[in-house]
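User: Show me sequence and structure for the first protein, then do the same for the second.

Assistant: Starting with the first protein.
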Amino acid sequence: METREILNKVKNHEMTVEDAEHFFRREPFEEMGYAKLDTHREIRSGFPEVIFCSGKADEHLLQIFGRLYEENGEVMGTRASQAQCDLIQAVYPQAQYDPVSHIIKMEKQEKKREGLVAVCSAGTADIPVAEEAAQTAEYFGTHVERVFDVGVSGIHRLFSRLEVIQDANCIVAVAGMEGALASVLGGLVDKPVIAVPTSVGYGASFHGLSALLTMINSCANGIATVNIDNGYGAGYLATQINRLAGRGR
């Protein structure tokens, strides 16, 4: 629970002062032997802990997924395989899995999504990373507009959606190959652009290194670059920017 939620429960006589005091006195993490769940992360940073599923043992993943859900009333895991999805849904059939972004989650139904972030992909092969960014931002309460397949090989496609892109508080530009989309967007908007290089491309793309170097060497202003294929990191950062924009109104 968030600090404000606890205080409101005390105010509305839904939680005793003693129970609230007990909550704040708890350790800032839960020791599970093989993992230390950061149960106070949302209090400190405004974002609850998210699970990176890839590489985790089945038993560990299942227990972590369940404990975070009990703690926060929702939970999200990134880079989940179909086998991991089957494992979790056998215990939590309400869990939703997206095989494109490889995100598995259980969300609060009453969640509001505010502001606006535009998530743009250069090509359809970049959509898995773009969806990871978009769904991460949505999970954290951001309204997202998807603008897919608007790469520089057909720049007129980008111009057809320019209005919604320019209205956004932040733009996420996801591109492989040479990674030029971020530079183009940086020259068209007055908002921050988060560049996400993907590992899409032929041999000389070096599994995304070429796009990464293009993005961090961009001559356009206002561009920040995350790691190769790091849609989650882009969605998280875009939400932080979107929240700041909302506070400034």
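Switching to the second protein now.
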Amino acid sequence: MGYNTKDIESKMQKSIASYEENLASIRASQANPAVLNRVTFDYWGAPTEITAMAGISVADAKTLVITPYDASTLKAIEKAILTSDIGITPANDGKVIRLVFPQLTEERRRDLAKQVQRMGEDAKVAIRNLRRTANDEIKKQKKDNLLTEDDVEKAEKAVQDLTDKYIKNIDTLTAKKEKDILTV
């Protein structure tokens, strides 16, 4: 019968997608709307993403323009950006908010690179936890006589191959993002 690795591979792919989303939210020196993906503000008592309540456009390489759909949310959006960890002070002209991305200092670049490394390690831990879960399931199926010894060996190798593939993918993504951050 054998062990089906499709479920574990699907979960690993979701982990990678989540990691890529987190990486996108870390700014290099270019204006990138993804930095606002995790920023929320209080709208009628519910935490609401800025991206759901405003049009976000790139005016030039260093400037984002945020145009709220509801003008009454302008102050709340501005406050949310100020209290977030993106490190940019918004400029509010009464109609739109502008975010001007300053040139990063060398120290800030190193800090961001370390943050990317930590996020990469967290993503690897998530992949390894999925491997452990799959291996536990394989052992359980062997104990329940659903898998033969050969099936167990093949399944564990398949799970390890998937783990290696996704860990390598994380390393590649991390290295690329670090290069983007550290390159002036």
